[in-house]
Design goal:
The longest helix is centred in the N-terminal third of the chain and has 27 residues, at 3-29. By secondary structure, the protein is of the alpha+beta class. It has helices at 3-29, 35-44, and strands at residues 31-32, 57-63, 75-81. The protein has one domain.
């Protein structure tokens, strides 16, 4: 191959990588109410041509806002991707 084609391929690979990194950062920030919605969202995400990402779902419990009542701590389940 000549240098021109190699540069073009290298540019495309770099472009695909940056696109996948951007989507990864956006999806990582999202929070879902249930595990089913998180799974459904992951299935919708496009797959890269040359780069693959493996997604997982992580459960986090977040306390409700405000002062809790006596003997009750309200936790809300949130699901994030990793």
């Amino acid at each position: 191959m000549d240098k021109r084609r190699q540069k073009k391929i290298a540019r495309r690979l770099k472009q695909y990588k940056t696109e996948i990194e951007k989507t990864y950062k956006k999806v990582k920030k999202l929070e879902f109410q249930s595990e089913q919605t998180a799974k459904a969202f992951i299935e919708i995400l496009p797959e890269g041509k040359y780069h693959r990402l493996e997604w997982g779902i992580e459960k986090q419990e977040i306390y409700k806002r405000g002062r809790p009542k006596k003997d009750k701590k309200k936790k809300l389940p949130r699901f994030t991707t990793n």
